[in-house]
Design a protein that fits this description.
The protein is an alpha/beta fold. It has 2 domains: 131 residues, NAD(P)-binding Rossmann-like Domain (Rossmann fold), CATH 3.40.50.720; 282 residues, Dihydrodipicolinate Reductase, domain 2 (2-Layer Sandwich), CATH 3.30.360.10. It contains 12 helices and 15 strands. A 9-stranded mixed beta sheet has the order 14-13-12-11-7-10-9-8-15, with helices on one face. Strands 3-2-1-4-5-6 form a 6-stranded parallel beta sheet, sandwiched between helices. Helix 1 packs across helix 3. The chain starts with 7 loop residues before the first strand and ends in a 28-residue tail after the last strand.
């Protein structure tokens, strides 16, 4: 039976930065597409008037690209309601119940700090507002395995697992979804998508900027928690999973969870941590901070398909470029017929997924040059995947949550299995190593894959 559609959207933390930067533009886009037709109730502590909330929403739309459809903005504002109150005050939930009116299947979006999740979830339960409802929870889902389990237990005291939507905006990106499609929509890939033909896989998420004034937050997170444990592990799951029985929520999540369960727990020797020069001078950062702004690691999957195939993951700030790429390196042919078939760069044939800033898929193959001699060169067959009118991640994820499609969200067992992989090195790890702005991190990161070649550094353009 298809899940029921939510008949209201409630946004806790509606006056915050996340709502201003991401949520309001997503709601505006949903109205323009005709996919948002339910009341939107904002909840927050400040005693704002409806006019002030309308002004905040309008400012958000203007800053995110401008008002190109005044009637759509007017319609969005007509859907908005506002409840002011303390999340610990039962009267706040009583006021929310009044604003919801006849709505019986609301979706509650918690755009609030994780420290408030328990308060709001229990408040909804006590006020009998959770029956037939959904709750949408922003990452991070805990700081380690123990806190993730605790958060899940709290959520389950009020909501069943199928009604909990753990949102990670990274999964809503068109290029991320394309990985799943490309893998299972093309028959030519499956015969070689295993340990017999793949030598190794690299995933890089690089940013050429720093913490941008978020030093206090980064001190509580670090690159391993903030990027690798969630964003990059999700990419690994899409690349490594077996074909699901269907596209429904349960089938996709079952296969992704198996990947996380197959990941071998990390050891200190699997990880290199770096910190960009000047990080300790950022506002909110400890003078002797050991928090990593760069992390590289070698990951192993103990599964039939991937046994023995190394996965190399890295991410960092103030690196040489802003880009996210996956490189799947294939093993060489079993016999060298041509002397020049080893590329001068040392890299074999590979499949490359560029996820950002532009989306593309490239296949590197050797082709013969004109002439009698059997001499060739390696070239990329390059396909750009940029599409007009592409949905933003938050538009896609909020739309999916409203209709009850959980395929792009994260399930309890997957969250806890992913934390179990990194838990051993969250505290027991090597110290951070300094690196310069505009580099690719500390040199020591090269040692992680020294036996398997070198890092693929994303570049602007096709190469």
């Amino acid at each position: 039976m298809a899940p029921s559609r939510s008949d209201a959207l409630v946004a806790f933390g509606v006056t915050g930065d996340l709502a201003h930067k991401m949520i309001f533009p997503a709601l505006y886009a949903m109205v323009k597409r005709g996919t948002l037709k339910v009341p939107v109730v904002g909840v927050a502590l400040p005693k704002w008037s409806p006019e002030r909330l309308d002004k905040r929403v309008t400012d958000s739309i203007e800053r995110s690209g401008g008002v190109d459809n005044p009637s759509a903005l007017k319609h969005l504002l007509s859907l908005l309601k506002y409840v002011s109150g303390d999340y610990e005050d039962p009267e706040t939930y009583a006021a929310l119940k009044r604003e919801l009116g006849s709505a019986r299947r609301p979706a509650y979006y918690l755009a609030i700090p994780p420290s408030l999740f328990e308060t709001v979830i229990k408040g909804l339960g006590t006020a009998h507002l959770a029956e037939h409802a959904r709750v949408i929870v922003e990452k991070p889902f805990g700081r380690d395995l123990a806190s993730a389990r605790e958060l899940n237990q709290v959520a389950h005291t009020v909501f069943p697992e199928e009604s909990i939507f753990r949102i990670d905006h990274f999964l809503g990106k068109e290029a991320i979804m394309n990985i799943l499609y490309f893998r299972f929509a093309n028959s030519f890939l499956e015969p070689i998508w295993n340990r017999n033909y793949i030598a190794g896989i690299q995933i890089t998420l690089a940013e050429d900027f720093g913490v941008k004034g978020r030093g206090s937050f980064y001190e509580t997170a670090g690159c391993l928690r903030d990027v690798i444990q969630n964003h990059l592990f999700q990419v690994v799951a899409l690349l490594a999973m077996e074909a699901p029985a269907g596209r429904d929520f349960g089938a996709v999540q079952n296969e992704k969870a198996k990947v996380f369960q197959a990941m071998r727990p990390l050891k200190p020797g699997d990880v290199v941590r770096g910190q960009y020069a000047g990080y300790r001078r950022e506002q909110g950062v400890a003078k002797k901070s050991d928090v990593e702004t760069f992390c590289a690691l070698r990951l192993s999957l103990d599964s039939w398909r991937w046994a023995g195939v190394p996965w190399y993951l890295r991410s960092g700030k103030y690196l040489a470029a802003t880009a996210t790429e996956v490189v799947v390196e294939l093993k060489p042919p079993p016999q060298r017929l041509f002397a020049d078939s080893i590329p001068s760069t040392g890299r074999e044939n590979y499949l490359r997924f560029r996820l950002s800033p532009d989306a593309a898929i490239a296949l590197a193959a050797r082709v013969k040059l004109a002439g009698k001699e059997f001499v060739g060169e390696q070239r990329e067959l390059y396909l750009s995947e940029e599409q007009a009118d592409e949905k933003s991640p938050y538009e896609r994820l909020l739309s999916d949550a409203i209709i009850g499609d959980g395929a792009l969200f994260t399930r309890e067992d997957a969250v806890e299995s992913a934390w179990a992989v990194v838990d051993p090195v969250l505290k027991n790890h090597p110290p951070v190593l300094p690196y310069k702005h505009g580099s690719w991190g500390p040199k020591e990161a090269d040692k992680i894959l020294a036996a398997d070649g070198f890092w693929h550094n994303p570049t602007v353009g096709k190469a």
